[in-house]
Amino acid sequence: MKIEDLAGVLPVDGVLPRDVEVSGVSSDSRQVTPGILFFAVSGSKADGATYAGDAARRGAIAVVAAKGVDLSSAGLPVITVDDPRRALALAAAKFYGSQPETMVAVTGTSGKTSVAAFTRQVWKHAGLAAASIGTTGVVAPGRVEYGQLTTPDPVALHKLLAELAASGVTHASMEASSHGLDQRRLDGVRLAAAGFTNLGRDHMDYHPTVEDYHRAKLRLFDTLLPKGAPAIVFADDAWSAPTIGAARAAGLDVLTVGRNGQFLALKRVEHERHRQRAEIECGGTIYEIDLPLAGDFQVSNSLVAAGLAIATGTDVAKALAALEHLEGAPGRLDLVGTTAQGAPVYVDYAHKPDALENVLAAVRPFTTGRVIVVFGCGGDRDRGKRPIMGEIATRLADVTIVTDDNPRSEVPETIRAAIMAAAPGAIEIGDRRRAIHEAVGMLHAGDTLIVAGKGHEEGQTIGADTLHFSDHEEVRNALAGVAA
Ligand SMILES: CC(=O)N[C@H]1[C@@H](OP(=O)(O)OP(=O)(O)OC[C@H]2O[C@@H](n3ccc(=O)[nH]c3=O)[C@H](O)[C@@H]2O)O[C@H](CO)[C@@H](O)[C@@H]1O[C@H](C)C(=O)N[C@@H](C)C(=O)N[C@H](CCC(=O)O)C(=O)O
Ligand SMILES: Nc1ncnc2c1ncn2[C@@H]1O[C@H](COP(=O)(O)OP(=O)(O)OP(=O)(O)O)[C@@H](O)[C@H]1O
Ligand SMILES: N[C@H](CCC[C@H](N)C(=O)O)C(=O)O
Ligand SMILES: [Mg+2]
């Protein structure tokens, strides 16, 4: 690509000769190779501008930086913009060129991974070549890969989207995390529709207030979606009304789903142990759907996913019929096994208060005995959620076992103590393996065990080391009677 090809997204005129070849774009000087256009972005730990010299030494052709940043010593032509992160996203989109024709994104505190996976499955059922991108990685026809971030950085994202488009993928759903939205990672994605699930306490180590966190999420609707595009909003959350208001004000076609929804109205749900029967009304017709998943919240997630598929052209009856074949995303209320007496053991990714509350409430209706929960809180993350989650667990479970979940650089005992302080009667077992085995050993007929917090994760990070650890494996071993 020539630098002039970026003229639509960057003020390149007069900075470099128009026919200078660009071999790529990057915001990480360590990744710069000759011909790369370097973007100096200011981050949480460092300021990219201080690495412009490094980028120059590695062969960058120019640096894109915020107005007012002094880069006179970098020895590179400077292109100035208002928002270097947005410029990077738009330039990455232009550089890699193609994206699946129909792209949708979903945001919300909980349910993003599930909705992205469900939307892909609904499209697939409708005969479309579909992919999903999120916390558990990339899933596409012939491709399953684990990813590092929920919303990949724009350079990795557009490289991936171009690969997917080249492989024939026409439809892709992706998660829009608040970090991703705030850091402009999705700004170059051509979105056809977007979804909102709910808002609760999360990432309070990044966003100063819950209002700031909500504002970051709203960028998806008021900045990224084109006017007139459909916004599928779950209508039964405390934050639904302000989200609907903002989406309407942005000129979007707001389609609400849920008990209070109008586009897909949930009329009735009957919960069974591992499945649910839902009556959904759309355009005056009632559809009866057998959802093969446990958990009230999965009904909500299915409605958002079906809404996204319908809003982007899938036939209503086909989309709703596809819900009968949904598979849960890995580690989301994932039934790993049952004891000889039939007590189910679920692995779930609830690592924030609302998610824990929902998952414990979800299993109560089909638990005739006790609900037992094993969970902990991650180190180097929001400390405020620890007592809140302790309180939720002891209020909603009959037996609470507090254990470790990625203590990272923190002292594990201190994290557990903060949870225990609000969890009277809870049992403290730091070693997660032992905690899981003891919990499985306690199960009687009618009980349900939830091992929460790690979901699909395959490691336990203690200090700087990540040791292999899988809740799925430990549950299976404990059920098989293998010693801890
Ligand atoms: C806090 C955060 O979100 N950080 C992300 C952010 O880094 P940053 O911009 O703050 O980077 P920084 O370290 O301050 O450096 C500033 C700039 O200097 C550059 N640099 C730095 C060193 C050097 O030698 N040369 C150089 O050019 C860096 O590449 C960067 O561009 O941008 C980077 C590139 O996109 C991300 O990899 C990085 O994610 C880190 C690893 C991370 O852990 N992020 C998590 C918190 C995250 O984003 N999570 C969300 C939500 C998860 C969920 O709830 O599902 C996600 O979407 O995954
Ligand atoms: N719609 C929902 N409402 C409330 N809780 C939910 C909902 N969907 C999922 N959960 C809970 O949140 C956990 C994470 O679900 P999921 O991975 O789909 O959400 P996410 O938004 O992608 O989360 P993360 O940001 O952690 O990746 C689930 O394991 C479950 O406990
Ligand atoms: N995206 C989240 C995941 C948290 C999962 C939990 N197991 C933990 O380690 O706290 C984070 O990195 O904060
Ligand atoms: Mg996710």
TrEMBL record:
Gene Ontology cellular component list: cytoplasm
Residues with the N6-carboxylysine modification: 217
Compartments it resides in: Cytoplasm
Every Mur ligase N-terminal catalytic domain range: 21-96
SUPFAM superfamilies: MurD-like peptide ligases, catalytic domain, MurD-like peptide ligases, peptide-binding domain, MurE/MurF N-terminal domain
Species of the source: Aminobacter aminovorans (Chelatobacter heintzii)
Catalytic activity: UDP-N-acetyl-alpha-D-muramoyl-L-alanyl-D-glutamate + meso-2,6-diaminopimelate + ATP = UDP-N-acetyl-alpha-D-muramoyl-L-alanyl-gamma-D-glutamyl-meso-2,6-diaminopimelate + ADP + phosphate + H(+)
Top EC class for this record: ligase
Segments carrying motif Meso-diaminopimelate recognition motif: 405-408
Name of this chain's protein: UDP-N-acetylmuramoyl-L-alanyl-D-glutamate--2,6-diaminopimelate ligase
Residue sites binding UDP-N-acetyl-alpha-D-muramoyl-L-alanyl-D-glutamate per the record: 29, 150-151, 177, 183, 185
Record's comment on post-translational modification: Carboxylation is probably crucial for Mg(2+) binding and, consequently, for the gamma-phosphate positioning of ATP.
Sites where the protein binds meso-2,6-diaminopimelate: 381, 405-408, 453, 457
EC number: 6.3.2.13
UniProt-listed Gene3D superfamilies: Mur ligase, C-terminal domain (3.90.190.20), Mur-like, catalytic domain (3.40.1190.10), MurE/MurF, N-terminal domain (3.40.1390.10)
